[in-house]
């Protein structure tokens, strides 16, 4: 029988892109199970641990708080999602939030693109500026925060 490969905390950090301190923190808050130890006290990790850390990293990138990840980490990677309808519901809800954030960020990108295209960063109070801006995907709220320029005043 082939012996399972193990990894040091340094190797694990390198493979996952997560710092050693963060890995220790995940253990401390029980997001990860306590690592086994060698006779010299050094932590050892298995591929399963690395997979879990990568899942945590992925969920974290979506903005999911660490405490909300716990239920997902307890489910086997080969589990049938139909067996966990509550987790599917949570993921769908989280996905909707992310899609909403993407749409909001796209508005900001559109606004920045418009600013770069126009080459102006401030506006005066003329009506022609508002009419000109109506061709772009910028909300009234954004207009209030990021006023347009007509070119009559400097940058």
UniProtKB/TrEMBL annotation:
Pfam families membership: MerR_1
Chain ranges of the HTH merR-type domain: 6-75
Domain of life: Bacteria
UniProt keywords, alphabetically: DNA-binding, Repressor, Transcription, Transcription regulation
Stored SUPFAM superfamilies: Putative DNA-binding domain (SSF46955)
PANTHER family: MERR-FAMILY TRANSCRIPTIONAL REGULATOR, REDOX-CYCLING DRUG-SENSING TRANSCRIPTIONAL ACTIVATOR SOXR
Protein name from the UniProt record: MerR family transcriptional regulator
The species this protein was found in: Paenibacillus terricola
